[in-house]
Every structure is written in C-alpha cells, then in structure tokens.
Amino acid sequence: MKLVITMSRRFGTGASIIAKELSERLQIPVYDKDFIHNEQAQKNYTDEAATVKELAKNPCIIIGRCASDILKDQLNVLNIYVYADKEDRIHRIMTTHTLSYEAAKELVESTDKQRADYYHKETGKMWGDVNDYHMILDTSELGIENCANILMQYFEKLEYI
Fold first, then answer.
1. Does 65 score more than 90 pLDDT?
2. pTM of the complete model
3. Which of 30, 52, 111, 129 is at 20 to 30 A from 122, Cα to Cα?
4. What is the CATH classification number for the domain harbouring 110?
5. What range defines the domain where residue 53 resides?
6. Number of folded domains in the chain?
7. What is the three-state SS of the chain?
C-alpha cells in the first residue's frame, strides 16, 4: 500500500522528531511548510493543496498545511494529530530555542493561534478536532521516543508496511 501519513501538531510537541524517525524507518520522505512553499511559485492555499495532492501520489509524510483535510477522501492516508501538555511544550521550546519561560510561552501560544486560524480559514473547521484524525498521540504521556514505535507497530499490525 502506498501509505501517506499526515501529521498535524501543536507547537513544541516533538512531531517533527517523530516524523523524521518514521521517515528513516519507512524510507519515505517528509514534507513540511518550507518544502511545500519551495515547490511552488505562488504561496496561496490553492497552490499548496495542489502540491500536497501531487506529493501524496507516492508514500510520504506531510506535516501540517491542512493535509489531513486536503487528502480526507484518499483511502491510503492516515491522519495523525500530535498533542502534549502546554507546560511540556513550553519547556521543550525553552530548550530548543534557548528562550526564557515567558518568551517560550508566548511563542507556543502565538504559533498555536496562527495554526488554528490558518486551518479554520482554509478548511472552515476547528483545528485539532478529534473527528478529523485517525490517531492522536500525546507525547507528554507516551514520550516522543515511543511514538514512532507505536506507529510502526500499528502499521505492521494493519499490514500497511
């Protein structure tokens, strides 16, 4: 099966680490906002959606860009949402960006708001609604390092890989 994984996430959850690990283990590419923007001349939602659909013709992992909604009618797509407690995310951002607690908190809140606003503007839906995802991973409870293993076991059980 040509598995396509979409990964939506709250800021600071470690989703990019999970995506990178899955990419290495499944030997499929990861595409994010920077890649998708570089693939097109114009940076509007219609162009992004076309790029996401084109990328999804082959096995891959697509982070963000409303990919879960854009690809909602494709049977080979698994939509994942990565969540973590706000305090864990703030502390992770403090470490990864070398920020004070207040600066990290502000960055987490503003980035989450931007993502929620973007998702709602482009899809008319509420970002993070559990009905839009096949699986939700809480990295505060599961640990970032365990999430790729959990997903690999799931893929093997359902014979996706």
1. yes
2. 0.93
3. 30
4. 3.40.50.300
5. 4-157
6. 1
7. CCCEEEEEECCCCCHHHHHHHHHHHHCCCEECHHHHHHCCCCCCHHHHHHHHHHHCCCCEEEECCCHHHHCCCCCCEEEEEEECCHHHHHHHHHHHHCCCHHHHHHHHHHHHHHHHHHHHHHHCCCCCCHHHCCEEEEHHHHCHHHHHHHHHHHHHHCCCC
